[in-house]
């Protein structure tokens, strides 16, 4: 079974901060990161939500989806702190920019939303080959009146990427099939 390359737009090293190594003070993003992160030097879901809402990522005047923020942190939280360090934050920025470009390229009417067919093309462009039934279930889960907003699209992309990565790690023969013990399955799903 062939899997999409990386399942999204993030790749390469840079997973979290190195213990005791400090962060590159000369990086222009570092001051922005510290402003968001506050006292503990880490970004939690609430801080990420405020950041993305203030940046207008959700569109309009509504707050960015908090569940999507939790999913994004879980996707990058390799040290299992429930928060993001500076390198994880930068990696998220790359992913968000890629997903935004992808979303905009399939939002044909420039409404700020996409429909199920546009979602199918967007996911297909990232290498996901899903059945019509799976696409229908995804569309129902992430749409409101058949339309998917950008922040719901992000939540969808993060969930599909995380599920694919979890599945891929267990599909050692790369045949598109795995066996899960019930407890392992629950742990995998609940950590996403």
From TrEMBL:
It is a peripheral membrane protein. PROSITE patterns: EF_HAND_1, EF_HAND_2. GO terms for cellular component: cytoplasm; endomembrane system. It is found in: Cytoplasm; Endomembrane system. SMART domains: EFh. GO terms for molecular function: calcium ion binding. The keyword Transmembrane helix does not apply. Keywords: Calcium, Cytoplasm, Membrane, Metal-binding, Repeat. The keyword DNA repair does not apply. InterPro entries: EF-hand-dom_pair, EF_Hand_1_Ca_BS, EF_hand_dom. SUPFAM superfamilies: EF-hand. Residues 94-129 form the EF-hand domain. This is EF-hand domain-containing protein. It comes from Eleutherodactylus coqui (Puerto Rican coqui). The lineage of its organism: Eukaryota, Metazoa, Chordata, Craniata, Vertebrata.
């Amino acid at each position: 079974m062939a899997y999409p390359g990386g399942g999204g737009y993030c790749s390469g090293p840079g997973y979290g901060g190195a213990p005791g190594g400090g962060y590159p003070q000369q990086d222009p993003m570092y001051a922005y990161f510290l402003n968001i992160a506050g006292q503990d030097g880490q970004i939690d879901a609430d801080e990420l939500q405020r950041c993305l809402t203030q940046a207008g990522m959700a569109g309009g005047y509504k707050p960015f989806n908090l569940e999507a923020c939790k999913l994004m942190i879980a996707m990058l939280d390799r040290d299992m702190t429930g928060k993001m360090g500076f390198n994880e934050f930068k990696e998220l920025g790359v992913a968000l920019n890629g997903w935004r470009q992808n979303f905009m390229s399939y939002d044909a009417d420039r409404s700020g939303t996409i429909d199920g067919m546009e979602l199918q093309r967007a996911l297909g462009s990232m290498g996901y080959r899903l059945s019509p039934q799976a696409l229908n279930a995804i569309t129902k889960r992430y749409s409101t009146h058949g339309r998917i907003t950008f922040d719901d699209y992000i939540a969808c992309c993060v969930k599909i990427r995380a599920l694919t990565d979890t599945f891929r790690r267990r599909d050692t023969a790369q045949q598109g099939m795995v066996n899960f013990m019930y407890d392992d399955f629950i742990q995998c799903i609940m950590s996403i």
